[in-house]
Amino acid sequence: MAIRYMLLTQKKDLRKILSFLPKNNFRAVLDPYSTAAQQRSTGDDLHSDEHVDDRSHSVAEVRILEIRASKLEAQVRDLTERCTKALADSDMVRRRTRKFVEDAKVFGIQSFCRDLVEVADLLEQATKNFTPEELVLEDSLLPSKDVAHALDRLQCIFTKHGLEKMTPIGGSYDPYQHEIVCHVAAEGVKPGSVAVVKQHGYSLHGRTIRHAHVGIAMETQEQ
Questions:
Q1: How far is CA 87 from CA 55, 81, 82, 94, 97, in A?
Q2: How many DSSP H helices and E strands does the chain contain?
Q3: Are 166 and 200 a contacting pair, CB within 8 Å?
Q4: β-pairing, 194-199 with 163-165?
Q5: Are strands 163-165 and 207-210 parallel, antiparallel or unpaired?
Q6: What's the pLDDT tens digit per position in 70-93?
Q7: Bridge pairing between strands 178-185 and 194-199
Q8: What's the pLDDT at 106?
Q9: What is the pTM of this model?
């Protein structure tokens, strides 16, 4: 109650003071109050502008972060593609290397086999110099049986290591396995097929190491 009484007293005193002042001085008294109000309004406007600037600055930062994120995503995709390609290349190299190693183990004796089949040719030619009766005789003085036994044993060793003699008689001509050395009359065989073998061919695990020298049957023209 005391505070309210004091406020009312001050208002009455202020009215009395203003009643004694000229009209021109009345505005002078009120000017400080209006100036303060204007300053307060200006401060509110500045605070609003600062808030707008802060929002614009935040939007710009978000935009910059989005651009950086998109660039990083592109880099991640690029690195992922490179990594996938590198893994595929390394897997291909590993498989090729394994294939080379396996081929080296299987076909490393290829040159040796080429030389060894010539020994088989000599043994086979030697057996042809004996008659069938000589090949079955038990007489140890004749070398025919030993030669035949050596040839059979050699052929068993060839088979054990994947070296096989070709048997192209009556079959179709294959340029990867046969080499034509002559043409003969087609007697009892189909024209264009292999009719005679001049030299046996050999293959190592399916790979031709020596072509068979063959004669191809041709249809003769009757006079």
A1: 47, 10, 9, 10, 15
A2: 5, 6
A3: yes
A4: unpaired
A5: unpaired
A6: 999 999 999 999 999 999 999 999
A7: unpaired
A8: 79
A9: 0.54
